[in-house]
Every structure is written in structure tokens, then in C-alpha cells.
Amino acid sequence: MKKRVVLAYSGGLDTTVIIPWLKENYDCETIAVCVDVGQEADWQTVKQRALDTGAVACHIVDVKKEYVEGYIWPTLKAGALYEDKYFLGTSTARPLIAKTLVDYARKEGAQAVAHGATGKGNDQIRFDLGIMAFAPDLEIIAPWREWDLKSRDEEIEYLEKRGLPVPMKRRESYSRDDNLWHISHEGLELEDPNNEPDYNSMLKMTVPPEKAPDKAVYVEILFEKGIPTAINGKKMDGVSLIYELNKLGGAHGVGLVDLVENRVVGMKSRGVYETPGGSILYYAHSELEHICLDRQTYSFKQIVSDKLAEIIYGGFWFTPLREALSAFVDSTQDRVSGTVRLKLYKGAISPAGVSSPYSLYNADLASFTTGELYDHADAKGFIRLYGLPVLVRALTSR
After folding, report:
1. Which of 99, 133, 378, 395 is surrounded by the most beta carbons within 10 Å?
2. Against a cut of 0.85, is the pTM above it?
3. Average pLDDT of the segment spanning 82-91
4. Catalytic residue at 177?
5. What is the mean pLDDT of residues 132-140?
6. 14 noted as active-site residue
7. Is the pLDDT of residue 159 over 70?
8. Torsion sign over Cα 96, 99, 103, 105
9. Which of 62, 103, 152, 175 is catalytic?
10. Are the C-beta atoms of residues 224 and 358 closer than 8 Å to each other?
11. Superfamily per CATH, domain 176-293+336-355
């Protein structure tokens, strides 16, 4: 009986080459699995391409709901941003794709799982760790770490020599990854950090800010325990809500990030990310936390946020530490409910009002007008005790 391999199949050049390569080098049957996390794709065309290239079967698996509820919302509630900029669009999707591949490997009786991640990138780590977490017995095949193909041109020649369909032009533009949360762009002028991004030819979901409408738009978002549930008073499921904010934010040039980041493998790489809906949600969630969380909780949560971003970026989603930190975040969100109003204008997001039944803001305390809850005279004793170490050090320094 031939060996069976489940392949994470996108329909792009790399994974299209991998199907015949696996057959030639592993003498196996390849089952292609397309995991739908919201990327733009004609799935029937992708499926037919997989079969035409030699796959014995191709499954299209819609996991958008699970992606939003199980991966995006926990990351949003944490406020996790890698290196202060990256909304973790690819990083959150890869663990779910890996988990889905294992599910289908079990269903198909496969002995191995294959993916098209390169030996230079972060995705190989995210795929491998995700597969290892659920199926340490399965072999992991990553052709980019094995074959002698060195470029896209060589991959195209590989397909052409075998009379197989080529899914892209010889001189394709940027290298991209997309899902319902973001679109990433790498390559071309971005390989030199001194070059300005060519937004006019690059962007897919977002207009360049200078081409956005001259009139601002306002959006109101309702949160329940840290999770967005409605836009402008209309209740929506998570997938629909993100698509709606992508459309709104994209039309106003919101959510562009140009980042030179530190990859897990040690090198720096540059990418431009479009995350219009995500940037709106992060901003709104942060505004709500500012009135709902006390100082100590907010301060410690910032530490947790940075650590979670590092963990998620590095592929350690399915680990006790990630789960424990997410549990802490969940506990902080019990009272993070309310409404946030934002203004979008030519790439900028501005606060336009926030309210919550759990707000810790008290007008009597904050007002310059003295109220019953605060006696100015109390401040003298407080400051003396609060600054006692300063006073003692000054006295001993004489």
C-alpha cells in the first residue's frame, strides 16, 4: 500500500509544484487540503488544479468561524501586537491550519503531513509545532528544506517540463498571504528598507490614505466581555463583523503597517500588512479597557500582551503557557463591555466617545470641582508616605 501524505494546499506555485514532487520523490498518494481562513480564492478552480496536478483527492475546509472565535478573539482581547506593530494575521492562522491538517491526516489514514513553507520563514515553525502538538507520530515533509529548486523561475520550469498547469505568471508581483484578518506583502521594492512602499500597485484591501475620502466617517462598536458583537447598533457574527470593518477601514486607508521585523529564524525581514478591520478593533478595544480596567490590572496585562505576541509569533499556540496567559486575559475581560465610537479619516483612527456600565471613570473624582469623594487635604499625607524612600535617601545623603 502506498504511503499517504496530506498536503496543506493553497493552489499557489509552491504547493502546486509539491504535488508532483511528492509523487516523484516519495512515491506516495497526496491528499490536498485547502483550509479556508477567509483568503480570496476560487476554491473550485483550486480544487481542480490540485487534481490535475496529481492529487488523489482535494478537500476544501471552511474554518473561518473557528478562526475568529478561537484564535482572533483571544489575540484581540490580549491586545497582542508583535514588536508594537504586527497584528499577527499569519501567525494566528497557521496553528489552526496545522490542526486541521492533522484532523484530515487521521481521517485519510495518512502517515505524513506536508506544507509549502520555506526554510527561511516563520511559517515552517508554526506548521511543524502545530502538527507536533497533535500528532508527534506523523512525519513532516517540507520540500523547501529538501529539494534543489532555488527560485520561482525554477519552480515554473519544473511544471512546464512536465506539462502541468502553472498557476502564476513568470514575473508575478509581491509574495502575499491573505485571510479574513489581513493581507501581507513581501518582495520587490520592500526588500530595501530605504524604499517607500508602492501602495498604488501593492494594496488589495486598502486605499492609499491620500486617496481616501475627504470626509471622515464614524463607526460605533459594541463589545461584550472584550468581544465585538455589533457595528452601529447592528448585531453581527464575528466573521461578518470583520468583513464589514475591513470594507469600512479599507475605504478610508486605515490599518497599513510597514514593518521590519525579527523573524524567529534570526534574520530581519520587511513586510507591509493590510489589517483595516483589525486595526479598528484593536483601537476600540484599547479605548474601552482604559475606562474599564484598574491601573494594576492594565499595567500587568501590557506585560502579558507582549509575551503572548512573542509566543504566538513564534508558533507556540498549543502550549500550556499560551493557554495560561489567555486564561488570565479572559479573567480581565469580564467587565470590558460597552460602546466605543471612532472617527476614521485618511488612514487615521481617532477616539470619538466611549461608554461602559462598568466604567471606573468617576466625574466627581476627576473634576476640578471639589466633590464629596475627594478631600484635597488627604493628598499631603499620601504624598509623604508615597515619597518616603525619596525623603529618607535625601536625609541620609547629607
Report:
1. 99
2. yes
3. 98
4. no
5. 98
6. yes
7. yes
8. positive
9. 175
10. no
11. Argininosuccinate synthetase, chain A, domain 2 (3.90.1260.10)
